[in-house]
Specification:
By secondary structure, the chain is α+β, with helices and mostly antiparallel strands. The chain has a single domain, classed as Aspartate Aminotransferase, domain 1. Strands 1-2-3-4-6-5 form a six-stranded antiparallel sheet. Helix 1 packs parallel to helix 4. The radius of gyration is 14 Å and the shape is globular. It starts with a helix and ends with a helix.
Length: about 120
């Protein structure tokens, strides 16, 4: 369970970095959710991402990769292996290299949402 807490904290930080651009919709010890806010283009609020502790792993959701699948081009096999579905990555632990790659992917997602006026 200690590994899951540490993993959750590390993944949550990836999203917290963009709190001034995103809207925190849930902040609990085991779940952190952020929205991109209201999109005039889509005429609704847009879910951006989340970190959530499950029973045996921590899930990291990153919706920009669903909206813009080209963001996934060139991701490492290690990160690809963690994908569950179109926008979810599952971890029991996360090494520094994978965390750095996921941080870069999150940053690209924020930038792409800005470009498309979804933030």
């Amino acid at each position: 369970m200690t590994n899951l807490r540490t993993t959750f904290a590390r993944l949550k930080k990836l999203l917290q970095k963009y709190e001034k651009h995103l809207t925190v919709t849930m902040d609990k010890p085991d779940a952190f959710y952020v929205d991109a806010g209201y999109s005039e283009k889509l005429e609704r609020s847009v879910f951006f991402g989340a970190a959530q502790t499950k029973k045996r792993y921590v899930s990291f959701y990153l919706m920009p990769v669903t909206t813009f699948p080209d963001l996934l081009k060139g991701i490492s096999p290690a990160l690809k292996k963690r994908m569950q579905g179109k926008s979810c990555f599952n971890f029991t632990t996360i090494d520094d290299e994978t965390l750095t790659e996921l941080a870069a992917l999150t940053k690209q997602g924020v930038e792409r949402f800005r470009q498309e006026r979804m933030l």
